[in-house]
Structure formats: structure tokens, C-alpha cells
Amino acid sequence: AQSVTQPDIHITVSEGASLELRCNYSYGATPYLFWYVQSPGQGLQLLLKYFSGDTLVQGIKGFEAEFKRSQSSFNLRKPSVHWSDAAEYFCAVYNFNKFYFGSGTKLNVKP
Amino acid sequence: NAGVMQNPRHLVRRRGQEARLRCSPVKGHSHVYWYRQLPEEGLKFMVYLQKENIIDESGMPKERFSAEFPKEGPSILRIQQVVRGDSAAYFCASSPRSGQGSTGELFFGEGSRLTVL
Known about the structure:
The structure holds 2 protein chains of 2 kinds. Chain A is mainly beta. Chain A is 0% helix and 55% strand. In chain A, the strands form 3 sheets. In chain A, strands 2, 5, 6, 10, 11 and 12 form a 6-stranded mixed sheet that branches. Chain A has a 4-stranded antiparallel sheet with strand order 3-9-8-7, with no helix packed on it. In chain A, a hairpin with a 4-residue loop joins strand 8 (64-68) and strand 9 (73-78). Chain A is globular, with a radius of gyration of 13 Å. By secondary structure, chain B is mainly β. The radius of gyration of chain B is 14 Å and the shape is globular. The A-B interface holds A 6, 32, 34, 36, 41-46, 49, 51, 90, 94, 96-104 and B 4, 33, 35, 41-45, 48, 55-56, 91, 93, 98-99, 103-111.
């Protein structure tokens, strides 16, 4: 069965520091991969997506993610975090009509 | 340029009452998904619908929950005889198409937060 694992439930970083959020998936083929962000009380907004081609994808708000087939990972990164990045981040896999979401990582940004 | 519209944003019900959550997808989108989000948990898939058809309801509880997406009008998620455990945020998402050739991207509404007293 397909699954998405986000091993870090909470992460705290200082403003200006770099960020990496981990995501691992379990799926036989190369899936469609996504990162979404959810601000408190809001819906989810797409940050970036990977379908094929270049394994390093750029997204909105300065985020990027790298697909590593050998590790079944799709980690999200940002070189310098801003206070407004504090939110919850969800990794997702899409396969034949269904999306599978990880349990999310809550990001706290220290001033 | 309306996105996915969900209403009500907040709904309070007493145990045993019915809750109806509505979702209007992005204009032109014919695929609707419903997800439930419990506190401190991620999104759990409930049901996937196309116009007038339920495609996948494998995430729906077998009793009390139902969903529809009629030819005209919004998609409805209906919860009968609500219990406290139904308290959650319910998110609707839409997509223009699905399967082969789909971009797979979901557009989310802002959610309906159900509180059962």
C-alpha cells in the first residue's frame, strides 16, 4: 500500500536559518509528488510538485525540493527561513485518482 | 476568480443532529475530494467524486456518512447523527481531471470546522 512518511512532527528553526523537511514515500513506480503548506485556519496551498525530469524542483516562496529515487525521498528545503514560513507542511503522493498525505510537519520560526 | 468555496466555515451541532457541508469546486473542475483533518493529525482521504458519481469512497465510515456531487450544485458531505468524534476540519479539494494525463494538482478550500457538543 502506498504511504507517505514525514518523520518530523515539529521543527523549530531560527529566522534566517536553513530548513529541510523530510518526506519518504512507499510506492512501486515514480509517483507524482507534492508539497503543500497550511497556515492556521486555512486550507492547503501548493508549494511545488514533481512529475518527471529534473529532480530538483523550484516552488513558490523560495522553496525547493529534491526527488531522490534511490532513497524514495522528496525533501523540502529553503536556504533562509522567514517568520512568515511558520505553518504546517504536508508532503503528498498522487497515484491513480487518489492523494496520500503525510501526517505533516509543523514549523516554528524563532525570531 | 473563485477558488474552492466551502460553507459553512464553522458549524456547531449537538450529538445526534445532522451536519451538511457544502463544497463548490473551482469553475470547470469536475473532480472533488473530501478529506478530514483531526487535531494533530494529517489529512485523511474520505471520498472522491465526479459529477453524479462516487469514484472512491474507501475512506468514508460505513455508517452515518454520505457524499454526493450532483450534476448541478455543490458537492455535499452529510453526516447523520453526529457524535463527538466527528469533530474535525473537513476539507474539500477539486481537480480539473484525473488519471492519465492529469497534473494531479489539488485546489483546496479553506475547510469546514465541525464541532459536536
